[in-house]
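Session log. Operator J.P. requested a structure for one protein chain; no other inputs attached. Running the standard single-chain path with token output.
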Amino acid sequence: STLAMKDLTAFQRDLLYVIASLDDPYGLGIKEELESYYDDDVNTGRVYQNLGKLVDSGYVQKAAIDKRTNSYTLTASATTAIDDRQAWESKQVRRIDAGDPTPSPEAETHS
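Structure written below.
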């Protein structure tokens, strides 16, 4: 079952963005990119546990590269969710820039 983007943790959303940014996303490469972004160590188990959740939720497709390495790619659902999220974020930033701090009703239900 696909979780709404708003139901993902910030870490899971970061995983999606990292996967989107890499030419050949695989477990340790994803971990290294996250560590670069966070400027801190990231627990390997946390990366794989959350990648598994993203696979289960339909956002990421996992495929074996070899016996020890898996590739992770975004599904169409993930790409759509990222696009929707970016549009929503841009809309919120425009509201802030316009001096309107009140969230719109659809912001409460947007996925």
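Operator note: Residues 95 and 102 are 8 Å apart (CA to CA).
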